[in-house]
């Protein structure tokens, strides 16, 4: 009798990638109006993406003034380059929000590089450091607490955490964006994630006490 076939071992499931706050479905009719130079169409696009761009810039730059400048420069570039966006029509399959987000990320990281802040990032002494894929702790649901904790991290570390956990970029994509290696991204994520949880611990304990006495 033929030997019984062995079941194929199952691969571990891929970690669920977060849904970006940029993931807004922009109608093609609105894009066409914006390409034609209709001011009200671009104003609507601006309103839809103002908060996602500003939040991304704040998490990377850590400064409201810098974030405001990133927002302004990003939307100016979107306005002047929107005629270049072809998306699904050129076969790339890139949604408009992904195209706009890439402009915002590039602008924020360009400013970060120009200020030479990367030298103050958490040092990646162990190139084989385990990849910490775990999400931030529950206290991260408190946007104010998360903002305070992220502001205490080095800019490059903060950028990796936000791009990976909030925007769903892979380590390879982050490495390309930041002109570093995937090992750098992985080590920043692991070390930065641990530090972020330490910073959020007091908020978690305070929330637990408040719930216990509620």
From TrEMBL:
Residues 47-117 form the RNA polymerase sigma-70 region domain. Keywords: Sigma factor, Transcription, Transcription regulation. Coiled coil: none annotated. GO terms for biological process: DNA-templated transcription initiation. Pfam families: Sigma70_r2 (PF04542), Sigma70_r4_2 (PF08281). Residues 1-16 have a biased composition (Pro residues). Transmembrane segments: none annotated. The keyword Translocase does not apply. The keyword Transmembrane does not apply. GO terms for molecular function: DNA binding; sigma factor activity. It comes from the Bacteria. InterPro entries: RNA_pol_sigma-70-like, RNA_pol_sigma-70_dom, RNA_pol_sigma70_r2, RNA_pol_sigma70_r4_t2, RNA_pol_sigma_r2, RNA_pol_sigma_r3/r4-like, WH-like_DNA-bd_sf. Residues 145-193 form the RNA polymerase sigma factor 70 region 4 type domain. Residues 120-134 have a biased composition (Basic and acidic residues). Residues 1-20, 116-141 are annotated as: Disordered. Belongs to the sigma-70 factor family. ECF subfamily. PANTHER family: RNA POLYMERASE ECF-TYPE SIGMA FACTO, RNA POLYMERASE SIGMA-70 FACTOR ECF SUBFAMILY. This is Sigma-70 family RNA polymerase sigma factor.
């Amino acid at each position: 009798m033929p030997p019984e076939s062995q079941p194929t071992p199952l691969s571990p499931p891929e970690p669920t990638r977060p849904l970006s706050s940029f993931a807004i479905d922009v109608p093609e009719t609105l894009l066409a109006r914006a390409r034609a130079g209709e001011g009200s169409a671009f104003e609507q696009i601006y309103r839809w993406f103002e908060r996602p761009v500003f939040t991304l810039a704040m998490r990377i730059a850590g400064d409201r003034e810098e974030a405001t400048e990133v927002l302004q420069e990003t939307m100016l570039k979107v306005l002047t380059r929107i005629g270049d966006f072809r998306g699904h029509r050129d076969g790339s399959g890139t949604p408009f929000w992904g195209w706009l987000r890439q402009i915002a990320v590039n602008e924020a990281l360009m400013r970060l590089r120009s200020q030479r802040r990367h030298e103050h990032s958490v040092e990646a002494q162990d190139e084989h450091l385990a990849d910490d894929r775990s999400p931030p702790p529950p206290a991260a649901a408190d946007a104010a607490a998360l903002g305070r904790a992220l502001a205490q991290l080095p800019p490059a570390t903060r950028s990796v955490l936000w791009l990976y956990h909030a925007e769903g970029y892979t380590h390879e994509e982050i490495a390309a964006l930041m002109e570093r290696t995937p090992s750098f991204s992985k080590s920043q994520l692991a070390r930065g994630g641990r530090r972020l949880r330490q910073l959020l611990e007091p908020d978690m304990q305070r929330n637990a006490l408040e719930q216990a006495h509620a």
